[in-house]
Amino acid sequence: MTTTKKELYGILLNLRETYRCKVEESELASVLDITGTGYTNHQADDATMVYDQTVTASTLKALKARLRQIEETIAHYENGTYGICESCEREIDIARLEAIPYTRLCMRCAERRDYDAGM
Ligand SMILES: [Zn+2]
User: Fold this and answer.
1) Ligand 1 mean position, distance from CA 40 (Å)
2) Å from CA of 77 to ligand 1 middle
3) pTM of the entire structure?
4) What separation in Å is there between the alpha carbon of 42 and the centre of ligand 1?
5) 73 lies in which domain range?
6) pLDDT tens, position by position, for the chain (119 residues)?
7) Count of domains observed in the chain
8) 119 C-alpha to center of ligand 1: Å?
9) Ligand 1 center to residue 78 CA distance, Å?
């Protein structure tokens, strides 16, 4: 059974909700971490909290970037350009979209971009 673009659109809408919740939770967690730091008498605890805060900040940044990517992909679906590679403008393989519904590059361009990035 092949997934249709409409089904993938539904998946993207669910993903958007999931990531919105994750971003909210992380924002809440980072606020709690900041207010918590410096209020304990144990240095080790403070160090742990600072470490947690750093992790949360980078996690939050990654979550927000992913959420933005999902939102842009949803906008592309609504424009009728979903599933078109933004580099070579060919149709992206549906199997690739099933694996990564918010991808904007076809397999070939993604591989080339990774290669260009030195990965
Ligand atoms: Zn391409």
Assistant:
1) 53
2) 17
3) 0.75
4) 54
5) 5-116
6) 678 999 999 999 999 999 999 999 888 877 766 555 544 555 556 666 666 666 678 888 999 999 999 999 999 999 999 999 999 999 999 999 999 999 999 999 999 987 776 65
7) 1
8) 18
9) 20
Give me the amino acid identity at 96. R
- Output the 3-class SS for 43-80: HHHHHHHHHHHHHHHHHHHHHHHHHHHHHHHHHHHHHC
Cα–ligand 1 centroid distance for 45 (angstroms): 49
Cα–Cα distance measured from residue 34 to residue 68, given in angstroms and rounded to the nearest whole number: 25
Q: Provide the token pair at 84.
A: 């078109």
Burial of 96 (0-12, 13-18, 19+ CB in 10 A): middle
